[in-house]
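Give me structure tokens for this 217-residue protein.
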Amino acid sequence: MKQRIVLLGPPASGKGTQADRLAAKFGIPHVSTGVLLRSECARGTILGQAADSWTRQGLLVPDELAIRIITTWMSEHGTRFIFDGFPRSVAQAEHLDLALSGLAAPLDLLIVLDLTDEEIRRRTSSRLSCLNCGATFSAPLDTLAEGWNCPRCGAALIRRDDDRPEAVEKRLEVYRELTAPVIGYYEQTSPHLLHRVNAGEGSDAVFTAISTLVFLK
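Here you go.
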């Protein structure tokens, strides 16, 4: 079974949802840089304040911040993980490869969740998030509304600033410029690990496809 998994894909492609399901099924920790950084923001730490000024505009946090939070997590928790939201730039991917090489624990699965821009805009327009536990929901599908309690932990659900239409357009632009090249990087360095999944299918179908890859030899 694969132990070091990276989920790549554009905003709202379901990385967090699928990572949660994989973590629950296989017992591999789900690590989201977005959730970690939003937690720092909510607590008002120096790291959180620095990250907040970038994420409010739909921009990626600088590589240094993202790398710091991930390497700190690995030093505390080890090298079994499902990374969601990292790496988001080629520089971050290179740093991750270097760090894992030093630990003799290379990546063993890379999954790209493909989704059209039209579907991304539709999903983000109705997405609700919990800043406490990091869960995300679809308002119409889950019959929830902004300000209601999170079904998982009871905290208030919000619509994230980076899900507002203007921020989503910026996120798509940033994704195409900085994160999409990460896929090209892995196509060159680790093509045997890279698999694409159509994220426009239902959540269950996507999860079945990914679960099969986790056990693929």
